[in-house]
Design goal:
The protein has one helix and eight strands, in the order ββββαββββ. By secondary structure, the protein is mainly beta. The protein has a domain of 103 residues: Nucleic acid-binding proteins (OB fold (Dihydrolipoamide Acetyltransferase, E2P)). The strands form two sheets. The chain has a five-stranded mixed β-barrel. Strands 6-7 form a two-stranded antiparallel ribbon. β6 and β7 form a beta hairpin. The longest helix has 10 residues. The chain is extended.
Length: 168
C-alpha cells in the first residue's frame, strides 16, 4: 500500500504553535493550492487543505512561515471521522506532514498573485518552448588557426549575502 501526498501552495493564515497534553509541539495550518487550468474568462480556482505537523516540523513552520508564504508539504492522508453527540457522522481528511520545505524565491515571495506572492507554478508542457537555432553545415577545418577562448567578466557574478534566516 502507498499513501503519499506532495502539495505546493501558500499559507492562508499564520501558523500557531501548540503543545499537546503529553508535551509534544504541534501545528495546524491550511494552504491554498491553485488548480492547474483556468477556464477562459474565469478566475483561477484553488483548493484548500488542512495540514498537521508535530515536533521539529511544527516548530520550523511556526518560526519561518507566515500567511501568504509559499510552502512545499510532503506527508500522508489520514481520515479523521467521528460521530457527534446527536449521532451525526462527520468526515474529515487531513494531511499529516512529515517533510516541509521552502519553495519559491524569497525576494519575490510577498505581494501580487491571487494568494499573495509570485505567479503560481505552471506545468512545463504549458509553457512556450524556445526554438533551437537551425544546425549549420560543418565547415572544412583545413588551415584554420585555433580560436581564443573568452572567459567572461567576473562582474557577471554577484555575491550572495546571508540574511541569517537559514534554519540549519
Amino acid at each position: 500500500m502507498y499513501n503519499r501526498v506532495i502539495l505546493m501552495g501558500r499559507l492562508t493564515r499564520d501558523p500557531e504553535l501548540r503543545t499537546t497534553q503529553s508535551g509534544v509541539s504541534m501545528c495546524r495550518f491550511s494552504i491554498a493550492v491553485d488548480r492547474r487550468y483556468v477556464k477562459q474568462g474565469e478566475e483561477r480556482q484553488a483548493d484548500f487543505f488542512e495540514i498537521t505537523c508535530f515536533r521539529q516540523q511544527a516548530e520550523f513552520v511556526c518560526k519561518y512561515f507566515t500567511k501568504g508564504r509559499a510552502i512545499l508539504v510532503e506527508g500522508t492522508l489520514q481520515n479523521n471521522n467521528y460521530t457527534d453527540q446527536n449521532g451525526v457522522k462527520h468526515y474529515n481528511t487531513a494531511i499529516m506532514a512529515d517533510n516541509i520545505s521552502f519553495c519559491g524565491d524569497k525576494r519575490n515571495d510577498n505581494g501580487g498573485g491571487a494568494y499573495g506572492g509570485q505567479p503560481q507554478y505552471q506545468h512545463p508542457a504549458s509553457q512556450p518552448q524556445p526554438q533551437a537555432p537551425a544546425p549549420q553545415p560543418p565547415q572544412a577545418a583545413v588551415n584554420r588557426a585555433p580560436q581564443p577562448i573568452e572567459l567572461g567578466d567576473l562582474g557577471d557574478f554577484e555575491e550572495i549575502l546571508s540574511d541569517g534566516e537559514v534554519p540549519f
